[in-house]
Amino acid sequence: MHTDQLRALLAVIDTGTFEAAARELHVTPSAVSQRIKALEHSMGQVVVRRGQPCEPTAAGEVLVRLARQQHLLEQEARAALDESTAATELPIAVNADSLATWFRPILREVAGWEGVVLRLHVEDEGHSHELLRAGTVLGAITSNPVPVQGCSVEAIGGMRYLPVATPELREQFALGRGVDWGRMPVLEFNDHDDLQRGVLRRRGLEVDPPTHRVPSSEAFADAVRAGLGWGALPTVQCADDLEAGTLVRLSAREHVDVPLHWQSWRLRSPLVKRLSEAIRRHAPTR
C-alpha angle with apex 252: 246 to 253, nearest 5 degrees? Predict the structure, then answer.
């Protein structure tokens, strides 16, 4: 395989089409197609599923990871030699609640890194490692402790979630000393959000209560504060509200602990090392 073939593969996957990849590489679509075909011939298997958008095969994912690693190291080398005016891209995956809370100081640190462009992919912590496997990102905040092939993993702490609601909503659905979990409206972030469902399962609930969907961490917390429904919020997001009495816990004992891990490629990159150090400093401890 040649460098220009890997670059063509990366461009096709990142842009989604051969035509867009050609524009990015300043070549013709025919040239991109020829490079991909040559790469597939040398590998003896298909590496790109042609479609809208184009996607990598299992073999293609391995090569996309290699291509992105090579691209990062080349960017860093050119920057060190003052041969490039292009910024070094830093693609990472982070879950929405982390991005809305403890990850904010890391954004401020990266803002001071000259020649670096941050590319954030927001994905649930239970699924972000899939972006690593596909070669989309070089690192991910994930709840999965099993490292993706070619990656290192380290535990960085975790987040505790509390089921909370407004006092008015709790009073409206009061049932004895508790609440009517089956009737009280609940919030969910997206299809991957299992926090609230987990609370309901542990209480043996067999019916689904009215469920609102709010796919934004900040808006989700605001919706809970507005009384739209109850939700499991990170303690850092609801501590002030609990102290002020604008939110109340629905159960004194109920909580959900989500462990967090930092997975990143194993490569000699000063930028990845710098980012890993920043994550260790700011990650939450349970």
Answer: 140
